[in-house]
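Late entry, evening session. Most of the bench is empty. Finally got around to the prediction I had been postponing all week. Sequence below, unchanged from the version circulated by S.P.
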Amino acid sequence: MALLPPFIRAPRTVASRHARTLAPHLLAGLPADDEVLLDAPDDRLGPALVAAGLGTYEAAAALLADTRERADWEYRDRYATRLASFACSRPEWFEEWRAVAPRDPDVLLVAAQLAVTRAWPSPARTELLREVSPLITAAAQADVRDPVPWRIALDHARGTRAGHKYFGELWEAAVRRAPHHYGCHVAAKRYLAESWHGSHRECFDFADRAAQDAPAHSLLQAMPVRAAFAYLTDGCGPEVPRARLDDAADRAAVLSARFPAADPWTAEIRNLLTYVLVRLGRRDDALAQLRLIGPYATSFPWGRLSDDPLGHFLAVREGVVAGPSGQPSGHPLGGHGEHARPQGH
């Protein structure tokens, strides 16, 4: 069986069927539709996923061990999540790794994430997640420095509808290990958004505090734009001032400018920022982000809005290139707007 790539490329038939639309993209400095990838891994994760697809775990083990040794917690979080997602459909490589090194901190981390990922879509999520608690505890105890098991614990608490007191204890443990860990802050914001449904100003306050306290290059500078996305797609609660939405987008744009163009690491933040800019009617700024995105589309945020995240991204991109009259799903802000699907894991 041919190995499926760990990312998705837009079908070439799209390009041939819409050949006339490629010229505007090229003129705007954007790649053609059939050059755009969905959730493309970076140069370190890609080989590990390919090796896992071939049934071997050594590359994944070396990758996660390196992140642990270097205390690269942001990369460790992202890589563990992607490896666990891959193991959901191709588990053989992970089961062999787990059998060989059952107490390895990296095995325990992926096992905890995998268990949460598998339980999340089930109607019996709450019951299934309660069974996962020992796996998360084992991952946390395997390396007491690592904040990633605590991010998983925060997600787990949201899935089990844990109370605020317990969640607060988890949060304190997480930030004690890594005060500016992006994944833990995203998990906390999701919990708060569900607990404070419709209270977008409180979520903005949380996001703004995180960004203000973080270094200028930290991914936490994108927390306010995540709050803006939640507001723009929720459709409930009191209005948030337009200036606050623009400030969130501006802060994320400054962060985006600190990284090179066509960078898989910041692709999700740039995709998210593009959505917010389009909704705010800031076409030129959205086009600038699309140029920085290059060929790297991401499932978030587009998968929250459509069953075809890549197609949705391409449609929004086409609308930005065409101008205000051609925006298919990026209508300017008018009160609350587009509804997102319920937040998954």
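Two things to note before I forget:
Strands lie at 8-9, 37-38, 296-297.
Residues 9-38+196-345 form one domain.
Will write this up properly tomorrow.
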